[in-house]
## 1
Amino acid sequence: MIRLENLTKEYDEVVAVRDVSIEIPEGEIYGLIGPNGAGKTTMLRMCCGLLPPTAGKVLVNGIEVQNDLESAQSQIGYLADFFSVYDDLKVWEYLDYFARAYKLDSTRVPERVNEVIAEIGLDVKRDSMVKGLSRGMKQRLGIGRAVIHRPKVLLLDEPASGLDPKARFELRQLLKRLRDQGSTIVVSSHILPDLEDFSTSIGVMERGVMLRSGRVGELRQEVEPDNARTIQIRWVGPATPVAELLRAHGLLQHAVLQEHEGAFPFRGDDEALSQLLSEMTTAGLRLTGFHEVKQSVEELYLKLSHGQVM
Amino acid sequence: MKYISNPEFLRYVRSELRPARVAVIMLSTLGGALLMAMFIFQQNHAQDYGPEYWGSVFGAIFVASSMILVLWSLLNVTQSVVSERTQRTFDFWRTTRLSPLTLAVGKLFGAPLSSWLVYATAFPILLLTGLLGHLRLSAIVGSYLVIALFNVGVSAIALCGSARAQDSRRANIFMILAIIVLVMTVAGGNHAHFGGTGSAWSAITPTAGIAEWLQGSMVRVSLFGMSVPSLLVTALLSLAVIAWCMVALVRCIKFEPDQISLFSPAQVVGVSASFLLFVYAAFQPVGAFITAPNLPASDPETATLTLQSLIGIGLAAAIACLYFAVNATLLTRDNLRHELRNRVPGEVGLRVITPWLATGFVSIVAAVLALVGYRQMFAGAVPQWFNLFAMYVSVIAYVTRDGMFLQWMVSQKIKAPVLKGSALLACYYVASVMVAAVIAGPPNAIQMLRWLTPYVFNMAPGVPGPGWMILVFLVPPIATAALLAVGVFRSMQRTSKAATALVQA
């Protein structure tokens, strides 16, 4: 759906984006992560034709953005990192303006505006002035603007920054709904938990370089090539029998045990894990918890960006 | 609303023309008109409602509503694009499928909508007071429409300024400068009438023409030697300005100012040609300013003065066009580096100077056509064709050098490089004159100046023309231009290589 080929952007001697080549398939939610100044915004602005690349090209649904800007932009919805809205319009007027600006059939515009207002959950604010909306509502309105023309690709630059927890939750729900409708979404963020529960792929950028890019599972595999899983357990009673059982299986060396809980790395398939759990209960351990701890995107990012796998 | 197909204009209609706001603007306009009428009545010694009184009321309301229209439009339009940039809504409409023309038209008429509402509200009052003041209906409606057209022209220039301004502060500076120029032009236009036919330059603003028209007569100006109504020239000039501004806006309104220039190289030459056309069209013989418009061409002194003024005006216009071409086509650092990645330096250099040379060529052609076309005005005097060409070629060579210097300034990491470069060039020319006067002494300064500035025509009788020497005088500017060009390309290639090395690393 989106292909970047050797994309480079230079500002004088500063190289904001260096030779980035990635491909994001259709229906993916791609989390673009990296610290401030990593080149995420520059890359997204090049993707939607706002910034000409110094070298390389961007293809959206097979259309080269620089060569056929209007066709490409009809397939792209973009939300900038810091943005403002036209405060002197009503909510429906704001969306109506952009529906017309994207050249939707004028007879279908009112219907589409109502659809989007419902989608972003602003039904009750339909006739309110934009300046009266909260920041979270304005963010949702911005996303509504970006999807008004049913784009195949949605580029969102730091959509959650500055939002309170409730607004972030609502935003996540909205993005999930859009994903379910078949949009390909690229979300940039440096607040990694925001990407945690819906990103299917991630790209890690630092100083203009794309360090790693791929599906979350594949990158986890890359970070832990020996397939070690972290198992967390809880129990009641003394810790000694737990330690002895783990020693018997050669798992104690890297285990961290406290009074009533602990964690240990486990290398083996689900069958072996099930066998271990069975042995623990047979040995009379009074377990209250036994589960695998998934590596968070944040941990993954830290490992990828601090040279642990480079 | 459903008949408005321009989304940008529709947005302004929705936000600016809310019922409460419309009511306030209309009532304020009516109230203001009433106050003016009462004030004039108080000043009216006869204390009656005769035609003179109504004429005065019409004049006051017409002037006030026109000023509100033009100044308020200027204020709103100057901020219209730059405010989108500062409020971060600019990227939104850049990613929509709105065409640049739709955007430009929407902003041109939408941004000053409130001022148009004031002007429209004033129309029935003007019509009523004008008719009561025994003014002709055609003059009332015609004057109203001419001001409206003039305002669209001013707004179009302001919109170009807004599209090019990096921030609101610069847009405000542009607006203040525009107001100063406007006031000076209006003041100049009212005093530029000598005898029966005025200069076409006075028709840039419609004030003098309208004042006369409302009093029952028609100001006429000279265009290509013919006497034409001043307001017709004003209307044509406004249309030409609007057309060129729209060409510029279609090119650049959807881009950041540092991404693209206002005009393409071909358009720059077109704008220069239009300006030269007007300059030569507006030319009047020297006699028109001294005694009467139809001074006999047989007077040798007047004929010589007319010839020299035609050459002088043409040369000044050519210099203005050339520097405009240079400033309009200089490549930004980013674009220059991009060009150097894709083309060899020689090709890039040629692309940079081509519009300058083309503008110079157009200037020479215009000068020749003007000298041939106006030959009956200076029948006794004969132009020295060789000296004329020598001066033009010399000016083009020096402008090319100055352009390359400005391009070199742009290629360096300097803030406001064009402004600083232009100041340095101005210092250079002033210093050249001073150094020549000090070193060679006033009588021989011209001989030295020929090596430092464009070819200086020696007025002293008995001194033969320079002949082939003109080619030697062209060596310093051309050599400097070539050296600067090499400097520009080297410095840009150095930074480009450094960046490439970073990418490869």
## 2
Amino acid sequence: MNLDTTDWSILRELQADARLSYAEIGRRVGLSSPAVQERVRRMEDNGIIEGYHAKVNVQKLNLPLMGIIRLVSVQDHATKEKILDILCQLPEVTACYQVTGEDEFIIHLHAQSIEHMSQIKMKFANLARLVTSIVIKRHIEHRIISAEAFPYLANTEDSSS
Amino acid sequence: MRLDDTDWAILRELQEDARLSYAEIGRRVGLSSPAVQERVRRMEDATVIKAYRADINYEAVGLPIMSLTRLMNVQGTDNINKVKSIAQSIPQVIRCYHVMGQDEYVFQIVATSVGDLEDILHKFTDYGHLVSAIVINTPVDHSTIDLDTLPSLKDKHL
């Protein structure tokens, strides 16, 4: 699917505030409300927009500690599967990436305390070597992907389809 | 701010679909639409809810390469601050965490190609030792923080 500059404007607005009404988005990008709705539906159907999520403040929800944990030197496929099974079931794990290189998985984990974090880690600590970093400051999160910041994305295929 | 079970139910719905109408949320949690709106406003004001975001598929918009890159051995506070401003100036850096441990910074970067990624990483090479991994797969992403799965969030642990 090719995105034109209006699609990109709509995407920018929805990334900044997913609860905007179609009418309000329309006002900002210069379209009628049904026209916005039609474009949004098309981007949803084509998997450009994956979902809309409220971002909560984990600190205020009693999860002040964030860890980024690397799972290193996972031996075999069966162990890999076992780890994935465990990680997918842990509600404190909010992201899990499978990566190339020495690390096998990198996860984001939220906990109430250091003790709580180590309890969670114990659930898979015998399956991989763990290297933990504690997040001091989240400088960038939820960066908006816009045509202004990525001009080459908007220009690559400008023909309509 | 103390959250009751209904607040938690509303939070769950909005984390799963931020475009639900107040009326629909009300139907699901057993409240009127204005009552939902009032509770949502309260959670927004208390910054329990930080924002509502559309999540896009990076690959589908032309950014198929995702990397998790660590920067270590950064010398001095000046350089630590400089790295932060560089990261903020690069739109491809979609996440940046200052961390404690072996590493100093962890970046999540999206790029059009491996070459593009290399150009971005180049901007950090003067400041420390970089270790970069390419994401093959994302088995877990944007998990909902929910009282049903994390009942201990109700007790004050601090």
